Amino acid sequence: METAGGGHPVSHTRIKFCGLTRAQDVHSAIELGVDYIGLVFAHHSRRRVTLQQALSLRALVPEEIAVVALLMDNPVDEVRSMVEQLRPELLQFHGSEDEAFCRQFDVPYWKAIAMGGRQPAEVSALLPVFSSASGFLFDGHGAGEAGGSGAVFDWRQMPEASSGTPFLLAGGLSPGNVATAIHVARPWGVDVSSGIESAPGIKDAEKMRGFVEAVRRADVAAG
Q1: Residue 207's beta-bridge partner residues?
Q2: Pick from 53, 9, 30, 69: nearest CA to 208
Q3: Which CDD domains match (predicted)?
Q4: Is 158:185 a contact under the CB 8 Å cutoff?
Q5: Cβ neighbours for 50, distance < 8 A, ≥ 6 positions apart
């Protein structure tokens, strides 16, 4: 069967739980079999963790699940220190970082594209600028705003991947709408934070489970 990226069938939508701050939520994510766990280092995020907190959470994550460090205009020395100590599998940049900044750490990275207020042609023009990116994450917030806001954009405006580069969908996803989002946008992966929370950084176990189950049902429906 044709595969995309990590050896899964095309119909296997990857799942990233982002903004985890508690050990019990990491354990729940692992039990549910998510593909990525996101730890937030963006300074203004309500889900930000310290490096020491991140190291404690990272120690719980098995090898088969990738740790993603989310950044937004963090100083270069801070990022370098985090990379050396935490050793994340991926970096995810949400700020005004240019391509040279993103690739200097020798870690695969995803670049977040703010979809709020942007036209499809403008979005398409941004992608070649980050030719070294391992993937792109399309989020509902506006340019210059932080992710994790729960803002939804028109999923029909998400570009269609043609080069095999992973495209992930984010922004306002929840157990109640993720199946529709997958049907409309056909993303390689989905990224959720606020949609599985009871409060910022505090995940809800039932919402987490409901989200994963909804994604798997959507995969089955897509064949």
Answers
A1: none
A2: 30
A3: PRAI (cd00405)
A4: yes
A5: none
pTM for the model: 0.91
Residues 8, 168 contacting (CB under 8 angstroms): no
Per-residue model confidence (pLDDT) at position 151: 72
Find, among 204, 146, 147, 200, the residue nearest to 172 by Cα: 147
CA angle 71, 190, 121 (to 5 degrees): 80
Tokens of 74: 């963090």
Q: CA–CA separation, 67 vs 58, rounded Å?
A: 7
pLDDT digits (tens, 9 = 90+) for 100-133: 999 999 999 999 998 876 777 788 888 999 999 9
Identify the H or E element spanning 191.
Answer: strand 189-192
The fold of the 14-222 domain, in CATH, is TIM Barrel (3.20.20)
77 in Cβ contact with 120 (< 8 Å): no
Structure tokens, 174: 């929840």
Q: How big is the CA angle at 171 (ends 167 and 173), to the nearest 5 degrees?
A: 95
> Under a CB-based contact definition with an 8 Å cutoff, are residues 175 and 211 in contact?
yes
